Amino acid sequence: MGLEFTWKTTLEDLNGVSERDPFYLRINPAKRTIEKMAPETEASNILIYQNGSAHNRGHAAFGGGTRTSDGRVFLVPHNSGHIGVCDRYGLEYSDFQIDTTGEAQYIGAAHKQKNEYYESYEKLYLLPNSAGSVVIFDFIYSEQSILGEDEYYQRLGAFAGTVELERGTQGGPIKSIVCAPHNSEYVMMVDIVNEYITSGPQHGMGEEAFYGAIAQDGKERAVFVPYSSAYIAEYSIQDNYFEATTEHHEGERAFAGGAYINDGINVFVPYDSEYIGLYNFNSREYERGPKHGQGLEAYKGCEKIGRYVVFAPYNAKRIGIYDTLENRFIAGPEHNQGEGAFCDAIYLGGRSILFVPFNSQNIGLAYVK
Question: Which residue, of 99, 199, 304, 316, is most buried by count of CB atoms within 10 Å of its CB?
């Protein structure tokens, strides 16, 4: 059964729900009404899902995304040769072509930066998945430049997941994007202040090692989420130091992405693992969370909204919801976008999330109540 809608004619009828929640409230100028989605299942009492705009860029289109300061989401090309642009509601889509070759090109991140002419502006950094360089796209000048071209990074699936960390210096913190090594033997850092690439330490955890990186309190250290690595790992940008810490015993291709909760607790998104993963950064202890029951290659990427961590469905038919307070998994609404549907989740503002389309022909939208 599809989503049902009820119509409300005044803001008062919405019981004070904030207009800053862009997915939950959508103003229809023609009818001058506001659309409120009505729950249809028990899971919908927590989360509701809707297809967003179609992108028309085929299968394996995008490999990630990032939200900019004006609320837009930029989708990073995987097999698509286009950067996708979604409005802050996820309901309008446009794109523009960039110079790429081959397939499986990029993951992604963004950075806000100052210069002498503008108080602030943003650049989009396309970080290599199998490309041999970092591509920087300047929003102000609509210019594309190449940073650190290197054939070494052309290994398929070199990196998977990024995190922004800060290294303290006498002149103030230096921000860098740290790329979690997947098939690369080395951690990679992109200094987004001085714009150069640095190869970090060798990790020794084999191929398909990690998928995702999670910043910890202070933003000087990160946890690398184990994919086929038998060990969880930590990285310090201050010391440029990598350490494998704790064995998780969940097998290969275990997790894909994660989120920091509080007090050192990190949640790992289950990919082939039957269980949600829980890692305490402070004590370096791992424990199994609840079973999810959604099969193999279930989820990729997540976002935390309030007490819930929402998993982006890859092969899972249902959106995944992890209740951090009750330590339980909830199978959310079906998305009906087939296998390999989404590969990441991006915070939209308010209590709304955008799912990055991989094989899905539509952007995915979720609202957490």
Answer: 316
Residues 174 and 180: beta-carbon distance below 8 Å:
no
Decide if 149 contacts 156 (C-beta within 8 A): no
User: Where do the DSSP E strands lie in 182-298?
Assistant: 186-191, 196-202, 210-215, 221-226, 231-236, 241-247, 255-260, 265-270, 275-280, 285-291
Written as six digits, the tokens of 40 are 């249809």
**Domain residue ranges of the chain, discontinuous segments joined by +:** 39-368
* Beta carbons of 98 and 138 less than 8 angstroms apart: no
How far apart, in whole angstroms, are the C-alpha atoms of residue 225 and residue 214?
A: 8
Residue (of 9, 3, 46, 43) closest to 27 by Cα position: 9
Given a cut of 70, whether residue 332 has pLDDT beyond it is yes
- SS3 sequence, 117-152? CCCCEEEEEECECCCCCEEEEECCCCEEEEECCCHH
User: Does 39-368 carry CATH code 2.130.10.10?
Assistant: yes
User: Residue 255: what pLDDT?
Assistant: 98
DSSP 342-365: EEEEEEEETTEEEEEESS-SEEEE
Tokens of 302: 């997540």
Look at residue 43 and give its three-state secondary structure.
helix
For 12, the 3-state DSSP assignment is: helix
Q: How long a stretch of residues is the chain?
A: 369
pLDDT tens sequence across 278-317: 999 999 999 999 999 999 999 999 999 999 999 999 999 9
- Go through 70-81 and write b for each residue having 16 or more CB atoms within 10 A of its CB, e for each that does not: eebbbbbbbbbb
Question: What is the model's pLDDT at position 312?
Answer: 98
Amino acid of residue 185 = E
320 has which bridge partners? Answer: 311, 331
